[in-house]
Design brief:
- The structure is a single chain.
- The radius of gyration is 25 Å and the shape is globular.
- It has a domain at 518-656: GMP Synthetase, Chain A, domain 3.
- The chain is an alpha/beta fold and 657 residues long.
- It is 30% helix and 21% strand.
- The two termini are 21 Å apart.
- The model is unreliable at 1-16 (pLDDT under 50).
- Strands 5-4-17-16-18-19-20 form a 7-stranded mixed beta sheet, sandwiched between helices. Strands 12-11-8-6-7-14-15 form a 7-stranded mixed beta sheet, sandwiched between helices.
- It binds adenosine-5'-monophosphate-propyl ester (PRX).
- Adenosine-5'-monophosphate-propyl ester binds next to α10, β20 and β24.
- This is Acetate--CoA ligase.
């Protein structure tokens, strides 16, 4: 694939020869120094970083490690909302912009730290008045509007953990998360704008609430003035509740290990797991890494284009950025709406200094061509970041040249929902970068590349070999799954992230992507099993297998192989002839794609749905997804001898092609 400027966009991830040294001018002013790579005692290092936060009471023990369970800053008392807001109010930051928000239609709101504090205190009062208590899990299903941040910080203020569900997820995903978290309080919105369309968000919430009866109260933010149905016994308008209360709820003194939030993420089973993050360690990790990795300075304007509904938004739009007292840009809509200038217009208009985005977005910028960034003044930029998937060296270089004007260090940051914050990334101004490599573990983080047996290897699996403060504490109400998923590949002291990795002779790490049944669609993590479960819940479907197909722009896309129920097969695939089934039905294919998109969300929509007479299975009945992957990628079929039904692979190949 090539862009309209004629540049080749994609090639295989190669190690590349080039080395990029940080510009001298950047080096001189960088927050990080070379001494950070010399840390001898990781616990002392993190304790020093933790001291930069405001604690009501200091901890007695930095780390209590009972593998694989960790507690950080044991005995310390802290509040995340206080650290993001109150502590800035005694200085000039009081009237500094905390959030600069832009809606897709072009409307703007600027909230200073004082404004944000007032709104958060008020909404915290609302939560209390409505009966939310410490420990109650509040589900937040909001689009990219300031109320999402206000709601999160209000929950944090009173010790009610939040579970934010990405607004792009469908009713099925929302209901599943509400059920698992046993959450009786939901915050949603009437609608929002996306690519010029008005999305009826309240309808999606209502559909979810038909699938679960857990929710007793639902607060609705008015974003678009949509006419929505309000259930009188359950639904309240945000603005009505806010108009009745005063700004009077102080930040509660919470335990360092109290729950801050749950974030559901896809694993290798059909059910997403509730990743548990607690206050003290998480806040230490994200505050410290924001400062060093993004080189945050007092007068910076920082823009992370992720959604607050993902971990990137939690850590690097909200908690890590606001605790540093920085100014964050938040944008509601699509990066290319109404045209390909939008992203660059935002950078130019607000004088963005630090821009953090995903390779999938950069690939799409590249496809449209350099004329768009080049026709804007992007001189304010001084640092660029990348997250969510491996960045191809060519894409890295395009970003460096055409967005960064060869003058901005790029931080390619590896981390996960489970790690809470960035784990491997260049320290900008300190380390030389190589396109495609995340360079080295950050200070205080111990990572290695290990083989199957747990021995150090040049190529194998990424492993984290010491606990770190932002680490997940468990899987919500499922310690067994926590142990099994993350701490049993080698031993219970070595964390297994399920990413392949290489390490080169300079000790630089190269992340190769997931090695499990998780696929990465536009930097969003999806489980193939989750999509399979959704397909199987359709009345016509008997069995389904989903694999990731390569896609130039999105990285990967779901590709589904579906066996129909016998009746549906006879009715819908026989094409009027009783004998031979025709494994093609365009209407049903579309119906199933829409079904998944509505159930889970648009990102899960399969690119192809292929009807098959059977699925390749091992003798023990396990679906051999590897074979389906070969078929999808049009590669030679791997070994079929262990199959119970070896003839099926070629048959599916014929149907797919
Ligand atoms: O495969 C890795 C990939 O994204 C996964 C984590 O996804 P999620 O929990 O949704 O968090 C995404 C944002 C932090 C990882 O297991 N990944 C993330 N960052 C990178 C990456 N792969 C390569 N390079 C990265 N910089």
């Amino acid at each position: 694939m090539s862009s309209e400027d004629g540049e080749e966009v994609f090639d295989v991830l190669s190690e590349g020869e080039e080395v990029f040294a940080p510009p001298e001018s950047f080096k001189e002013q960088a927050n990080a120094g070379a001494e950070l790579y010399e840390i001898e005692n990781y616990q002392e290092y993190w304790a020093k970083e933790a001291e930069k936060l405001d604690w009501f009471e200091k901890w007695d023990q930095t780390l209590r490690w009972e593998p694989p369970f960790a507690q950080w800053f044991v005995g310390g008392k802290i509040n995340a909302s206080y650290n993001c807001l109150d502590r800035h109010l005694d200085s000039f930051r009081k009237n500094k912009a905390a959030l600069i928000w832009e809606g897709e239609p072009g409307d703007e709101r600027v909230l200073t730290y004082n404004d944000l504090h007032r709104k958060v205190c008020k909404f915290a009062t609302v939560l209390k008045n409505q009966g939310v208590q410490k420990g109650d899990i509040v589900t937040i299903y909001l689009p990219m509007i300031p109320e999402a941040v206000i709601a999160m910080l209000a929950c944090a203020r009173i010790g009610a953990p939040h579970s934010v569900v990405f607004a792009g997820f469908g009713p099925g995903s929302l209901a599943q998360r509400i059920e698992n978290a046993d959450s009786s309080f939901l915050i949603t919105a009437d609608g929002y704008y996306r690519r010029g369309r008005l999305i009826h968000h309240k309808n999606k919430s209502d559909q979810a609430l038909e699938q679960t009866d857990k929710v007793e109260q639902c607060v609705v933010v008015e974003r678009c003035g949509l006419d929505v149905t309000m259930n009188r016994d359950r639904d309240y308008w945000w603005k009505d509740l806010m108009s009745e209360v005063k700004c009077e709820t102080p930040a509660v003194k919470l335990d360092s290990e109290d729950l801050l939030f749950l974030m559901y993420t896809s694993g290798t089973t059909g059910k997403p797991k509730g990743v548990v993050h607690t206050i003290g360690g998480y806040m230490t990790h994200v505050t410290s890494t924001s400062k060093y990795v993004f080189d945050l300075k007092e007068d910076d304007t920082y823009w992370c284009s992720a959604d607050v509904g993902w971990i990137t938004g939690h850590s690097y739009i909200v908690y890590g950025i606001l605790s540093n007292g920085a100014t964050a840009v938040m944008y509601e809509g699509a990066p290319d709406y109404p045209d390909n200038n939008r992203t660059w217009e935002i950078i130019e208009k607000y004088g963005v200094n630090i821009f953090y985005t995903a390779p999938t977005a950069i690939r799409s910028f590249m496809k449209h061509g350099k004329k768009y960034p080049q026709s804007h003044n992007l001189n304010s930029l001084r640092l660029l970041g990348s997250v969510g998937e491996p960045i191809n060296p060519k894409v890295w270089k395009w970003y460096h040249k055409n967005v960064g004007n060869e003058n901005c260090p790029i931080v390619d940051t590896w981390w996960q929902t489970e790690t809470g914050g960035i784990m491997l990334s260049p320290l900008p101004g300190v380390i030389k970068t190589r396109p495609g490599s995340v360079t080295r573990p950050l200070p205080g983080i111990s990572a290695e590349v290990l083989d199957e047996e747990g021995e150090p290897a040049d190529s194998g699996y990424l492993a984290i070999t010491k606990p770190w403060p932002g680490m997940l504490r468990t899987v919500y109400q499922n310690d067994e799954r926590y142990k099994k998923t993350y701490w049993s590949k080698w031993d219970d002291e070595t964390y297994f992230p399920a990413d392949g990795a290489k390490i080169d002779e300079d000790g630089y790490f190269w992340i190769l992507g997931r090695i499990d049944d998780v696929i990465n669609v536009s930097g969003h993590r999806l489980s193939t099993m989750e999509i399979e479960s959704s397909l199987v819940s359709h009345s016509d479907v008997a069995e389904a297998a989903v694999v990731g197909g390569s896609d130039d722009l999105k990285g990967q896309v779901p590709v589904a192989y579906v066996m129909l129920q016998e009746e549906a097969e006879n009715d819908k695939l026989n094409n009027g002839e009783d004998e031979e089934l025709d494994f093609f039905n365009a209407d049903l294919e579309e119906e199933l794609k829409d079904y998944v998109a509505e159930d889970i969300g648009a990102i899960a929509r399969p690119r192809d749905v292929t009807f098959v007479p059977d699925l390749p299975k091992t003798r023990s009945g396990k679906i051999m997804r590897r074979l389906l992957q070969d078929i999808t990628e049009e590669e030679e079929l791997s070994d079929t001898t262990t199959l119970k039904n070896p003839e099926i692979a070629e048959k599916i190949q014929d149907i797919y092609c």
